[in-house]
Amino acid sequence: MAVMNVNPTRMQLQKLKKQLNTALRGHKMLKDKRDELMRQFLELVKTDMELREQIEEKIRICNAGFAGAGAVMSSEMLDQSLITTKQKMYAKADTKNIMSVNVPVFTTSTGSGDSACEFPYGFAYTSFELDKAVELLNETAQDLVKLAEIEKSCEMMSAEIEKTRRRVNSLEHVLIPRYTETIKYISMKLEENDRSSKARLMKVKDMLLEQAHNYSEE
C-alpha cells in the first residue's frame, strides 16, 4: 500500500492519527448499518416470498371460481355482470425511514365502506362461485399493493446495502491501510531524524569539549 504524499512532520503525524481514528469510527458505524440493513432486508424478502405465494394461491382460487361461474352461467351474463364496477380503490403513498432509506408506504382505501359495493352486479342471476371469486379478487388487489410496497422497499434497500458495502470496503482495504502505512512511515522518519540529531549533538559536544579543554570523550 503506497503512503500518502505528505511532509513527515509531527504536526502531520498528529493530523493523520486523528483522521485514522475518524475513519475507524466511520468504518464501524457503516458496518453496523450494513449488517442492520441486511437483517431487515432479509426479513422483507421473506415477507415478500410469503405474500407472493398467498397472492398466487388466491389468484388460482379466483380463476377456479370464474371457471366455475362460467360453467353454470352463460358467457353473455358473466360478461354483463363484470362489465362495470361500483366501487373504486384508492392508494395513498407515504414514506418511512429505515436506516436512512426512505421506503414507500402505500395505504389503500375504497370509496364506500359498504361490502355490497364490492359486487358490480345483482345477486339474482349470478352464481355463488362468482361472488366468492369477486370477493377474493378484491382482497388480492389490496395484497398486490402491499406486495408492490415490499418489493420497492427491497429494491431501495438493496441499492443502499450495495452503496454501504462499497464504502466499508473502501475504508477497510484502501483508506485505513493507507493512513496506517503513512503514520508508520512518518514515525520511522521522525525516529531516524531524532537519532541523526542526537548523533550530531554528541559530535558537536565532543568538538566543543576538545576545543575548550583540549579534551575528548572517547
Briefly say what this structure is:
The protein has three helices and two strands; from the N terminus they run ααββα. With 218 residues, it is mainly alpha-helical.
Describe this structure in words.
With 218 residues, the protein is mainly alpha-helical. The protein is built from 3 helices and 2 strands, in the order ααββα. It has a two-stranded antiparallel ribbon with strand order 1-2. Strand 1 and strand 2 form a beta hairpin. Helix 1 packs antiparallel against helix 3. The longest helix is centred in the last third of the chain and has 86 residues. It is rod-shaped. The two termini are 44 Å apart. The model has no long low-confidence stretch (mean pLDDT 83).
Q: What is the percentage of strand-forming residues?
A: 5-15%
Shape: rod-shaped
Q: Let me know the largest β-sheet.
A: 2 strands, antiparallel
Mean pLDDT: 83
As residue ranges, the low-confidence spans are none
How many individual β-strands? 2
Strand order of the largest sheet: 1-2
Classification by helices and strands? mainly alpha
Number of helices: 3
Distance between the termini: 44 Å
Q: Percent range for helical residues? A: over 70%
Radius of gyration, whole Å: 37 Å
Query: Could you state the oligomeric state of the chains shown?
Result: single chain
The arrangement of helices and strands along the chain is HHEEH
